From TrEMBL:
Domain of life from the UniProt record: Bacteria
Keywords: Membrane, Transmembrane, Transmembrane helix
Protein's name in the database: VanZ family protein
Transmembrane segments: 12-35, 69-86, 98-117, 129-151
InterPro entries for this protein: Teicoplanin_resist-assoc (IPR053150), VanZ-like (IPR006976)
Ranges for domain VanZ-like: 24-142
Length: 187
């Protein structure tokens, strides 16, 4: 028996499994990209002041700022879609889903930042945490509400067709089998 608001049937299993597999693959790619040691002659000091790195990138001008800011936004952005996809619920309020997904994206980004402290050539950058979280939020808002609405419409069409098929079968048969309500046993 499935919870109310979950995707039903084999489509649900395919969506959840696909979401889970893609989530694991994406996190493995992110770990490989962000936790490899860098062979560099010197390392910048850690950035623990929020927005300082973003301001420094923007001070270089837009053409030079687009790449580092885009990389920060795009690194964990797929999590904004993959986390709700792996969860598989359709009847969820958008703000609640957004808060859960943003919190999970923030925690994953924070975990990566903490793991990077032990990797040679990598330093902590609080702006990457902010950009990663913003990327997760933007991806979630751009894809998940429309995707859930489409899946709800598809499910309603399929369940309507199934109900019509059941009523035709009932018309041809003698009707539904009567059921007896359960009665509690007296002490």
């Amino acid at each position: 028996m499935q919870r109310q608001g979950s995707i039903r049937g084999s489509a649900a299993i395919r969506i959840r499994v696909t979401g889970g597999v893609l989530l694991v693959a994406h996190l493995a790619l992110v770990a490989w990209l962000m936790l490899r040691p860098l062979d560099v002659p010197w390392v910048m000091p850690p950035n623990v002041h929020p927005l300082a790195g973003i301001r420094a990138d923007l001070a270089l001008g837009w053409p030079q700022a687009v790449r580092p800011l885009g990389e920060g936004l795009a690194l964990l952005a797929p999590l904004g879609v993959l986390l709700p996809m792996a969860h598989g619920r359709l009847a969820v309020s958008t703000p609640a889903s957004l808060v859960r997904t943003a919190a999970a994206g923030t925690l994953i980004s924070l975990g990566i930042a903490l793991l990077q402290t032990g990797v040679p050539g990598r330093v902590v950058d609080v702006d990457s945490l902010l950009l990663n979280t913003l990327g997760v939020i933007v991806a979630h808002l751009a894809v998940v509400p429309a995707g859930r609405a489409w899946l709800r419409r598809r499910e309603a069409r399929e369940s309507g067709a199934a109900e019509q098929q059941v009523t035709v079968q009932e018309a041809l048969s003698q009707g539904r089998t009567p059921t007896i309500p359960r009665v509690g046993i007296a002490p």
